[in-house]
Amino acid sequence: MRKITIAKGDGIGPEIMNATLSILKAANAPVEWDEIEIGEKLYLSGNTSGMDKRAWDSIRSNKIFLKAPITTPQGGGYKSLNVTMRKTLGLYANIRPCRSFHPFVHTKHPKMDVVIIRENEEDLYAGIEHQQTEEVVQCLKLITRPGCEKIVRYAFEYARLYKRKKVTCFTKDNIMKHTDGLFHQVFKEVAEEYPDIESDNWIIDIGAAKLANSPEMFDVIVMPNLYGDVASDIAAEISGSVGLAGSANIGDRVAMFEAIHGSAPTIAGQGIANPSGLIRAAIMMLNHIGEQATAELIQHAWARTIEDGIHTPDIYVEGVSKKKVGTAEFAEAVIARLGQKPETLPAETYARGVEMKMPVYKRNKARKKALKGVDIFVDWTGKKPDELAEKLKTLNNEIKLTMITNRGVKVWPNGFDETFCTDHWRCRYEVENGHPAEKMAIVDVLNRAIEKDIDVIKTENLYEFDGERGYSLGQGQ
Fold first, then answer.
1. Which of 58, 74, 221, 429 is the most exposed place for a label (fewest CB within 10 A)?
2. What does CATH list as the number for 1-89+240-350?
3. What is each CA distance from 439 to 119, 367, 446, in whole angstroms?
């Protein structure tokens, strides 16, 4: 008997969790659970994390967490508990299967069968934001080589384990050449280790358009955190309904399973929520812990229920569906069909005795790092970049002012009057002789800025790695 941790969550959470647990019990799933309380009630009681020590201890001890949706209260500076758990517990891989259940659930894409694998810990979800001037706030996009390598390798290992034929990468490295560029580069490197699996890549905008219009083009798609969050919801919706989709959050030590939808407070307590997302997440959980027979039993019964037209209001369609049911009734229908197999939908078979073994990340040999200058960010309410440049040139030493940008667009030298500027200016100082800069040269620039009452709000050092520039240029002419 495997002990797991469960949380019934907020909104419709208790209803769909009770339905899911009733199916696990009826299927004699070899699990027992420790229930914890997380979410809105804890937030409002003064616990700003939405989770207490006992809850953390239970999850870390049991290693497996089945979670219903929770509500993060508006205002008050509350952080998303989902994001906190994923990052704190090292749940680096988010897996969201999105397949069509045509002709029983309405979709324009009857052949759709896509798995989206999303990096789950970094990117803009690092949550590092600052207001720097009256007019400008920033959010740091953090992409790491270990993060890229782990998620990309997971995608290929997943494809191999589940006999998928192709892995596709979505990025925006035509614009974000260093962050998304790293993700794409790692994808190409790892893909070479899997010659048995086809690989390709798309820019996220056209890739997402193709996914929405022709999802049968894709098999497994891997991408950074934000793109994956958006694209997986789109994929789930066009497959039939977001309410049907479950997801897994996988780490080296702990795994969390959940429906991809939210707590839907507007329908809470009405008994009409679709529990399918959490049921399918529980099926993923059973697969993860090696209980494939029980996973198949529940999957077949669930698919047969869908085939038989027993549908909750969100997927009920007159003329296709046979009976409109609530949350508990749907679970009862699944239980009544345990031992039956679908007749039209696939009767899925899960491989036994196989395990995804991810290698430990090995850090590459460090490249030679050379300081080439500094970007200083200045809060200045003037409008003419030439005036700011004259002030900043007085700070020159061995590193000299070479460029000013505003919102990433070069405005000095040779800027255009048509370019709109805010009060947030990036001012680049670089060595001229090609030799590495001295760190004290940066300190000197900052000291002189203080003396001249220039408001420096942030700095970013500029480095080369084995002679390769590690920083972006300004956009412009």
1. 74
2. 3.40.718.10
3. 35, 19, 11
